[in-house]
Design goal:
The chain is mainly alpha-helical. It has one domain. It has a two-stranded antiparallel ribbon. The longest helix has 21 residues. It is globular, with a radius of gyration of 14 Å.
């Protein structure tokens, strides 16, 4: 196992958590809790044989909650559903979306502003 050296790991995780939050919100009209987001991040990291301390997973969960709620509050219901769909589709690396690239940039900006993107997830051992 290698340690991811690219700073995109947290950006991608923040994007994925935000996509899941929006998708769940528009499907069930309910927001995922911070703990649920943190657990989901741990599951994804585990499948990739990576690890991230709980405090970092929790902060990413909080940031994804803030971003998802901001998007939902500033978009019409239909536009929000479209964004959630585009984000979920973009979790497949073969799917290319201008909307997703713009939101990835927003995730990167949020991480920079919150200094949450300093260290990449490390391999589990």
């Amino acid at each position: 196992m290698q340690t991811p050296t690219d700073p995109d790991s947290r950006t991608n995780l923040l994007f994925a958590l935000t996509a899941e939050r929006l998708s769940a919100y528009y499907a069930h009209d309910q927001w995922m809790t911070i703990a649920q987001g943190s657990s989901l991040a741990a599951q994804w990291l585990s499948r990739a044989k990576l690890d991230l301390p709980l405090i970092d997973r929790r902060r990413l969960s909080e940031l994804s909650d803030e971003l998802a709620r901001h998007l939902a509050a500033t978009l019409s219901h239909q536009a929000g559903q479209y964004i959630a769909h585009e984000m979920m589709e973009s979790l497949d690396p073969r799917y290319r979306s201008k909307v997703a690239f713009e939101l990835l940039d927003e995730c990167e900006r949020l991480l920079r502003e919150n200094e949450a993107g300093e260290a990449a997830p490390r391999p589990r051992g």
